């Protein structure tokens, strides 16, 4: 019953928003009844398919499940841009109409409405097409230097390759992940950090598609911390599966790595909201640091950037996070700060550096615009301050 209620409410809301788009654009766009009917059919199908896409993972037929997800998520990406540009168009039309009414400017209202409707649709489709290409291509390597105080000479040049938020699931499969693994392995990392949201689905459905993780190669191995989507997908089962693949999972704990005689502390915490799923999974940077040598450089893997305040208080030197996707596509990057302290890139909080990856895959719509995916190669260097 709750699922049905959610489906009804969501479909109704989406129906209203799709009607708004159609009523604002189609009336001004064409006098052709055939084109108008076709456009309304598209909007109606989009409104219905999007909420159904979220329930697709419950379908027993894998091809039908993935096919419905592909159509629904792609439609969601187009709808999002259509909605944003339609709202912007209306705001601009209101301002121009006010200026016209005040005789500040003189315009052909009919021509403006038609041409702006065409431009709105063209922009939405262009952004969606470019965003699709950006999402499906292999993430680019981003090189970052991290200056740490009192860094031992042996750790100068230590390379950490971070991947995050791949979201293996309905539209991201083994081949997509395999290309990422192959690219990571060319970077000859000392350590591979996976900062959560690796999957969107159950082990029983996706274990085959995460097999490439077993091929990750780094001098000190690969380490993983849970993201919120692991908890939506059966975190305990995924923790066991990742460990089976040779990936070390850090659950509010740390390891001490010896690198050419120097010590490095690597810690990891569960997702910021993990405690709402399992009582013994409350995220705790202080517990992760407990017993670690204070003189050694310390790095925390934490899926959400908002762990930074506690990480700073616990005495960490560097936090690696993901979760935000950098907003994934415009204009949602402007909304990330409503939930997280940082959207993407390097930031400083007292004595703590925080690096937030834009993610290596994507979630939901296969679309990235203004927030390219990344494989991050972070090199530790001695600070000059």
TrEMBL record:
Domain of life: Bacteria
Transmembrane residue ranges: 6-22, 34-55, 67-85, 92-111, 117-135
Short name of any one Pfam family annotated for the protein: Metallophos
Keywords from the named record: Hydrolase, Membrane, Metal-binding, Transmembrane, Transmembrane helix
Domain Calcineurin-like phosphoesterase: 158-326
Protein name in the entry: Metallophosphoesterase
């Amino acid at each position: 019953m709750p699922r049905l209620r959610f489906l009804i409410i969501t479909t109704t809301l989406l129906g209203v928003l799709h009607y708004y788009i159609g009523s604002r654009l189609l009336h001004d766009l064409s006098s052709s009844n055939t084109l108008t009917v076709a456009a309304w059919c598209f909007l109606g199908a989009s409104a219905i398919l999007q909420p159904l896409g979220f329930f697709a993972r419950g379908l027993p037929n894998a091809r039908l499940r993935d096919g419905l997800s592909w159509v629904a998520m792609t439609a969601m990406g187009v709808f999002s841009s259509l909605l944003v540009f339609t709202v912007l168009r209306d705001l601009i039309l209101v301002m121009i109409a006010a200026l016209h009414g005040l005789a500040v400017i003189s315009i052909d209202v009919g021509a403006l409405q038609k041409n702006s409707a065409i431009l709105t649709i063209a922009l939405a489709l262009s952004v969606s097409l470019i965003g699709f290409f950006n999402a499906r291509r292999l993430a680019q390597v981003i090189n970052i230097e991290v200056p740490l105080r009192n860094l031992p000479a042996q750790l100068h040049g230590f390379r950490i390759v971070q991947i995050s938020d791949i979201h293996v699931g309905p539209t991201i499969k083994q081949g997509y992940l395999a290309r990422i693994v192959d690219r990571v392995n060319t970077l000859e990392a000392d350590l591979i950090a996976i900062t959560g949201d690796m999957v969107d689905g159950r082990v029983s459905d996706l274990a085959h598609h995460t097999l490439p993780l077993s091929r990750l190669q780094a001098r000190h191995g690969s380490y993983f911390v849970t993201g919120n989507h692991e908890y939506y997908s059966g975190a305990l089962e995924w923790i066991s599966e990742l460990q089976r693949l040779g990936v070390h999972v850090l659950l509010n704990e740390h390891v001490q790595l010896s690198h050419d005689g120097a010590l490095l502390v690597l810690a990891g915490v569960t997702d910021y909201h993990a405690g709402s799923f399992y009582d013994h999974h409350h995220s705790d940077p202080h517990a992760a640091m407990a017993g670690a040598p204070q003189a050694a450089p310390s790095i925390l893997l934490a899926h959400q950037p908002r762990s930074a305040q506690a990480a700073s208080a616990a005495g960490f030197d560097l936090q690696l996070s993901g979760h935000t996707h950098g907003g994934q596509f415009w204009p949602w990057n402007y909304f990330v700060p409503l939930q997280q302290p940082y959207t993407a890139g390097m930031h400083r909080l007292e004595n703590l550096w925080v690096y937030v990856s834009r993610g290596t895959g994507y979630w939901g719509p296969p679309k990235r615009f203004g927030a390219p995916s990344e494989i991050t190669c972070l090199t530790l260097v001695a600070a000059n301050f």
